[in-house]
């Protein structure tokens, strides 16, 4: 008998775990101050945009992207200091590379493990790709629990361990010794996700050639190019060759490639923007911490996690900011350790000032 409605047919066809999910939420932010997604608040200068326009003009859209990305790889390696002996793989955002890693490594039911809470997509990608996700709780003050990590690694023997350095959404940067201990203990691959590295003044990239079972994942999304959708993975060429096999053909479109090559010629613009955000982080953190009943967690990223207590819960403050057209990320119910927490991207100085005065207003009005 054929099903009469789409719902009938979907129920018998789409995986039950997928049917139970909601799609990744991207709230609208038109007209307001957008501090919810760790984007860079600065747009590229006109001169760079004009260069991009010319490069786009000269790009053939009727052909598939070239298979040979040697020239782009040369530019990316130079701009981001990828060691000569390491391989490199490009993704349509680093989200895609997270999938490729899990797909290449995990049989159904194999374990992917990460300190938790961390980037939600580690969990989602693992489950979409039929792996089992184990999140190892952070300590109450949102630091890495190394003994718990080592114990969980021994127990679950994960194929892949993801470490976000710095961690999203908490902002902490796990100590080198702890990361090294995890690399030394893990039986499979360790992915060092340096999405927020430009704000941390710290990297594992120079040490990558000495780490045969670790790879480094990076993105340009946080340094001013979130709309481009470009991420890269570097590590031993033999690992990279395996992941390249599950990469969808032509995953990097020609417009992204053309624009990226232009922007990388102006890399100092991106570096200056990141430096500005780094410089604005401490004053914003201090001003937030000075508000009544607000706890701020130390951040090495371009965002700050703040906990609201006393009369105000995270949901109330989030909503009150939203009615003032300021969008921050409410992570209050994402994990018990994040109760009443909001994650706030660092904006322009004017946006940070507007946020602070809105918060003063909200907290005073209660
Ligand atoms: N890794 C981490 C830790 C992130 O927080 C994010 C984005 N929020 C990503 C990777 C994905 O970035 P993109 O897909 O934009 O490259």
Compact description:
With 366 residues, the chain is of the alpha/beta class. It has 13 helices and twelve strands.
Summarize the structure in words.
This protein is an alpha/beta fold. It has 2 domains: 28-44 and 269-364, Aspartate Aminotransferase, domain 1; 60-265, Type I PLP-dependent aspartate aminotransferase-like (Major domain) (Aspartate Aminotransferase, domain 2, 3-Layer(aba) Sandwich), CATH 3.40.640. Helices cover 40% and strands 16% of the residues. The chain has 13 helices and 12 strands. It has helices at residues 6-13, 16-19, 46-57, 70-80, 94-105, 120-128, 146-156, 176-185, 237-245, 254-265, 267-289, 314-323, 349-365; strands at 33-35, 87-91, 111-116, 132-137, 160-164, 189-193, 214-219, 231-235, 294-296, 303-308, 326-330, 341-345. The strands form 2 sheets. Strands 2-8-7-6-5-3-4 form a 7-stranded mixed sheet, sandwiched between helices. The chain starts with 5 loop residues before the first helix and ends with a helix. Bound molecules: 4'-deoxy-4'-aminopyridoxal-5'-phosphate. The site of 4'-deoxy-4'-aminopyridoxal-5'-phosphate has 12 residues, from α5. Its EC number is 2.6.1.9.
């Amino acid at each position: 008998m054929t099903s009469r409605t789409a719902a009938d047919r979907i129920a018998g066809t789409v995986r039950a775990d997928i049917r139970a999910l909601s799609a990744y939420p991207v709230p609208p932010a038109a007209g307001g101050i957008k501090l919810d997604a760790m984007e860079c608040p600065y747009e590229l200068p006109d001169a760079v945009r004009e260069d991009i326009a010319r490069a786009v003009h000269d790009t053939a859209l009727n052909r598939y992207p070239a298979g040979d990305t040697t020239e782009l790889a040369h530019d990316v390696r130079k701009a981001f200091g990828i060691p000569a002996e390491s391989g490199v793989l490009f993704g349509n955002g680093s989200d895609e590379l997270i999938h490729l890693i899990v797909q290449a490594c995990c049989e159904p039911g194999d374990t992917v493990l990460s300190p938790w809470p961390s980037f939600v997509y580690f969990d989602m990608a693992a489950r979409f790709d039929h792996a089992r996700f184990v999140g190892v709780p952070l300590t109450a003050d949102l630091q890495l629990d190394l003994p718990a990590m080592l114990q969980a690694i021994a127990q679950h023997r994960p194929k892949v361990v993801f470490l976000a350095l710095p961690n999203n959404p908490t902002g902490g940067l796990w100590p080198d010794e702890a990361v090294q201990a995890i690399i030394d203990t893990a039986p499979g691959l360790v992915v060092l996700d340096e999405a927020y590295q430009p704000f941390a003044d710290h990297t594992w990239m120079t040490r990558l050639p000495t780490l045969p079972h670790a790879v480094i994942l990076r993105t340009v999304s946080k340094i001013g190019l979130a709309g481009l959708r470009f991420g890269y993975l570097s590590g031993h060429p033999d690992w990279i060759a395996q992941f390249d096999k599950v990469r969808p053909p032509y995953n990097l479109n020609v417009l992204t490639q053309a624009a990226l090559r232009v922007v990388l010629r102006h890399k100092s613009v991106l570096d200056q923007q990141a430096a500005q955000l780094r410089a604005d982080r401490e004053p914003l953190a201090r001003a937030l911490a000075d508000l009544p009943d607000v706890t701020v967690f130390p951040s090495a990223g371009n965002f700050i996690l703040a906990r609201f207590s006393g009369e105000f819960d995270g949901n109330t403050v989030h909503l009150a900011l939203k009615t003032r057209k300021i969008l921050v990320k409410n992570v209050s119910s994402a994990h018990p350790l994040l109760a009443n927490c909001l994650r706030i991207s660092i904006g322009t100085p004017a946006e940070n000032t507007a946020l602070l005065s809105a918060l003063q207003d909200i907290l005073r009005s209660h």
